[in-house]
Write a structure and sequence with these properties.
alpha+beta, outer membrane lipoprotein receptor (LolB), chain A, about 20% helix, globular
Length: about 220
């Protein structure tokens, strides 16, 4: 009986060690330290503007597309310029302005509108994701993988490339539907002179533009 008890304790002890090691890998402290530092760099900025390129790859539909854009961010507000459109988000409402069609639509912000934009991607690791530091390249860049805790979520993995100065160089979003989005940040500049009205579309300043209000 005593032998059985000792054997049981040894097995439980081995299981606990293995479980602890697995837990450490899933929530890698080195990765968290790096992610925390990167997030702090963006949070301390009063505002910033970044230009980026996006590549979309649809493995199922065999479609590859690319585009370039610019995003200006202040807190939870942003203005996105991409594909001939200007998208304004003041934290409550979203305006989508099409110069070609001379119209602007406005609707209330939904939670998913803030999930995977550049202004929120640096915070996404804090909830719902496991993280691990995969590699540190010769140029000093670090590769960090975030894996969704809930495998039924639309986004199953995010891979980040972080510079030696702890800024985001690029990130790739891997979706469960087989569509991947890769974003390369081509330039980044802090902006301390942004005002709240910059993130609101003013119809009076755009005569002839039709307003379609979905609120």
């Amino acid at each position: 009986m005593k032998r059985f008890s000792i054997l049981t304790l040894l097995i439980l002890g081995a299981y606990y060690v293995a479980f602890s090691q697995t837990e450490a890998i899933q929530y890698d402290p080195e990765a968290k330290q790096l992610l925390d530092a990167m997030s702090a760099n963006y949070q301390q900025a009063q505002g910033f503007v970044a230009s980026f390129s996006q590549e979309m790859s649809d493995k199922v539909g065999q479609i590859d597309e690319s585009m370039k854009g610019t995003i200006t961010v202040m807190g939870d507000k942003y203005k996105l310029e991409v594909s001939g459109q200007e998208i304004y988000n003041d934290g409550e409402n979203i305006w989508t302005y099409s110069k070609e069609n001379a119209e602007v639509t406005v609707r209330q912000q939904e939670p998913e509108d803030q999930q995977m934009n550049l202004n929120s991607i640096v915070e996404v690791y804090k909830e719902g994701y496991k993280y691990v530091l995969l590699a540190q390249k010769e140029n000093g860049n670090s590769v960090v993988d975030l894996d969704a805790e809930d495998l039924e979520k639309p986004v199953r993995k995010i891979r980040m490339i972080i510079t030696p100065k702890e800024y985001l160089k690029s990130f790739t979003i891997f979706q469960t539907d087989g569509i991947d989005f890769r974003y390369n940040i081509e330039s980044f500049e802090e902006k301390a002179d942004l005002t709240e009205d910059f993130f609101t579309f003013n119809v009076k300043n755009h005569p002839g533009v039709e307003l379609i209000d979905f609120r």
